[in-house]
Amino acid sequence: MEQVFALARKIAPWNVSALITGETGTGKELIARAIHRLSPRSSGAFVAFSCANQTDTLVDDELFGHERGAFTGATTNRRGRFESADGGTLFLDEIGDLPLPLQAKLLRVLQERAFERLGGAQTLKVDVRLICATHRNLLEMVKRGAFREDLYHRLNVVQIHLPPLRERRSGIGILARHFLERAAKEFGKPPMSLSYAALTALEEYDWPGNVRQLENVIKRAVVLAEESTIQPCHLPPAVSAGFPQQAAFGSYFAYVREFKRRLLLRALTECRGSKSEAARGLGLGRGYLDRLIKVMGIRSQDAGFDLDEQEQDDQSSELS
Description:
Strand order of the largest sheet: 2-3-6-1-7
CATH architecture of the largest domain: 3-Layer(aba) Sandwich
Order of helices and strands: HEHEHHEHEEEHHEHEHHEHHHHHH
Largest sheet: 5 strands, parallel
Structural class: alpha/beta
Strand content: 5-15%
CATH topology of the largest domain: Rossmann fold
Low-confidence stretches: 309-320
Mean pLDDT: 87
CATH superfamily of the largest domain: P-loop containing nucleotide triphosphate hydrolases
Number of strands: 9
Number of domains: 3
Distance between the termini: 41 Å
């Protein structure tokens, strides 16, 4: 993430297009807003629009506006997002969902900085910095003919990739505390904190919905908590599974045991059940790892791989 922030700061002063990639909920719009705030265009508007699940006509109207009488119900002239962002930044989310006919129109706008409204004949000039985002693989879409290659290269002057939250677990606590502080203020509650068990549960969860899901989970916890400390019982069951639900005297050892078990499971899963590889990655002796697996009651179905079968593969590999 430090590399992401450094790249965003580096390109902010320059009027180049940027393509932000990453899974849904990783914070792509937040990066786009940061680039805008750090740019010479910061005094201009930041206009955002999502191309996802929109018809061709609706996207055309939203981006470029229309003239009175352009279609049934068009009783007045309407400015589109490009006009609204003139002198500022336009952020187009889910650009991979933009229909092919509009891809050609967008390319022309980027090349000529000009367009016409729906039903209009007057050519309008705009000065807009374009930042796009997608969770799709645009290069694969180009190969399939689903996305224009010339537009792809025009948008992809600088690419910023946001890793999913599960790949940057060290930042989960920072984000969680930020959202906790903000949610407490939003709901009029006193300052709140995370218990060790709740924080560990958050850091161990895989977050398929990424940062957006984490924020919603923290809001839920703040609403449910009657005291100033968030416990695992305030988190959704999928997040808190396996953790003691309330802090209690002597629970330290339960937390440590659960942390060790989850650490071993993660290592075994990432090594596809290879005990030898997992032991090397954890810096443990192979025999000690075997004893830990037995003590923790870890089974093949827990790791998602046949540990006994992998054991034979490991031994065969070592003999060869």
